[in-house]
Specification:
Blueprint: H1 3-30, H2 45-67, H3 71-107
Length: 108
């Protein structure tokens, strides 16, 4: 059985379950007795849902593993960024002092 066929059958079972729920809710709200033949999803649909859930969890784990960062690498990157910001601030401060000195000495 192809994967697409399994998926379509699972979707049909879910739609039938939803329709049965809608029928029960409509009957309850209108005060009628619920229909006696309530269709339930087949036993084959339940393992498919469990298999889909397991496959989705495996896919999620693969995505998480793909974007997982090493804590040591992250720590060194943060430390390097802090040093770069400090050096840039120090250079900007030095430039400000130089400009202040240059403009005050040149004016006199």
């Amino acid at each position: 059985m192809s994967e697409r066929l399994k998926d379509l059958q699972r979707q049909r079972a879910l739609a039938q379950e939803q329709l049965a729920w809608l029928e029960r809710e409509i009957a309850r709200e209108s005060g009628d007795q619920p229909p006696t033949a309530v269709s339930t999803p087949s036993a084959a649909a339940r393992p498919l849902a469990a298999a889909d859930r397991a496959r989705a969890e495996a896919d999620a784990e693969a995505v998480l593993a793909q974007y997982k960062n090493d804590p040591q690498t992250l720590q060194s990157s943060v430390k390097r960024g802090c040093y770069l910001y400090f050096l840039a601030a120090l250079a900007l401060f030095g430039l400000g002092i130089f400009a202040l000195y240059f403009f005050t000495v040149r004016r006199h």
